Fold:
Amino acid sequence: MAIRPIVRLGHPALRSPADPVPLEKLADPEFQTLIDDMLETMDDAGGVGLAAPQLGLPWQLFVYAAVDPDHEDDDEHEPELKVLVNPGIDPESREVVYDWEGCLSISDMRGLVPRYPAVLVHAFDRHGERLDFRAERYEARIVQHEFDHLNGIVFLDRMRDLRSLAFGDEWEQFMIRGEDSEGAGDG
Ligand code: NI
Structure:
């Protein structure tokens, strides 16, 4: 396994729609190594999610750490690492909720982003098995953030008011004091 460089805003891969992964490609050891590298790169960068376009690769593929929202600060509960190939998502309702997000490709910035509180996810796992599940709250937010990366969209595009945009230190100092936020992981 290896840590790969994460591309940042301005790299064309972050603005290009990704291609579906041909499922036979999942049998290719090099592609499995890519998935392992994505997990390792995400962990090394301290992120909660990472999409293939963030490594400059045009695949509909992302990984994330599905933190149980009830045990976020509990070291006993390791997050479940998930790999989604060719995902699709359907919001459960039209309602949106706002919370803070950051992105490994947009270093050190935070902003308030509206997302659906629950989505139905359809995808394949890294072995080509069908995955159908419901994601809610923080997991739903991560899935929507990473799914956007597969369509050339970053969280800045989703913000409805850029005045909440802040650098990490200033965000901690001035913007989240006393707030109960589930979000703000980098994806
Ligand atoms: Ni991101």
In short: The chain is about 20% helix and 30% strand. The CA atoms of residues 89 and 140 lie 10 Å apart.
